[in-house]
Amino acid sequence: MSRSIFSMIQKLTSNVRSCNMAQTAFLQKAALEERCILVDEFDRPIGNASKRDCHRINNNGTIPLHRAFSVFLFNKDNDLLLQKRSPWKVTFPGHYTNSCCSHPLAEIPGETLEDDAIGIRRAAQRRLNYELGIPLSEIQLSDFFYLSRIHYFSSGDGIWGEHEIDYILFLQKDHITIDPNPDEVLPEIKQTLMIYDNGSSNYLIILSKDLELDHQLS
């Protein structure tokens, strides 16, 4: 291959990569305008606010308390699927975390419903489809096992953090279709029971200790 053709291919590849990065940054910025459900310490709804305002640390160190969920997807051998977060995420970019974690949204009909955590289940089904590409037809709302809620706080990097009433959902499935969304998840996905301090989100470490899951810290 001639030097000029090789140089042209390199330039084209670089341009495509730059366009993809710009698109990802745009999508992540747009996602910060989604409306999270604000709650009090008893998980009673008190309003809504943008995802941006729900994760940006205020000058006094506080973060608005809001509703969230975390899905732990196991196969029949009890292996846990971990994802590696996109480097464009404002909280814990590039870190390993549980299978899927996000928020029910105030602007989506049905995701504010509370009986049997049905709104949370709907949000989890939606995000598993968006982040991991799992078809909606492969996971039914009844497949989710609602385990508990936890009150979770992390100061993150000092600029962006977390303060959530987090619903813990377990899901056990085999033979599902996974096609990760590169805007949300890096291609590297782990299926493991080993959870590590180095490179894992604070949330994953705290939760694994609180629930006394089998794990090994290094």
TrEMBL record:
Pfam families: NUDIX. GO terms for biological process: cholesterol biosynthetic process; dimethylallyl diphosphate biosynthetic process; isopentenyl diphosphate biosynthetic process. Pathway: Isoprenoid biosynthesis; dimethylallyl diphosphate biosynthesis; dimethylallyl diphosphate from isopentenyl diphosphate: step 1/1. Keywords: Cholesterol biosynthesis, Cholesterol metabolism, Isomerase, Isoprene biosynthesis, Lipid biosynthesis, Lipid metabolism, Magnesium, Metal-binding, Steroid biosynthesis, Steroid metabolism, Sterol biosynthesis, Sterol metabolism. Residues 64-213 form the Nudix hydrolase domain. One of its GO terms (cellular component) is cytoplasm. It comes from the Eukaryota. The keyword Magnesium applies. PANTHER family: ISOPENTENYL-DIPHOSPHATE DELTA-ISOMERASE. This is isopentenyl-diphosphate Delta-isomerase. It comes from Vespula vulgaris (Yellow jacket).
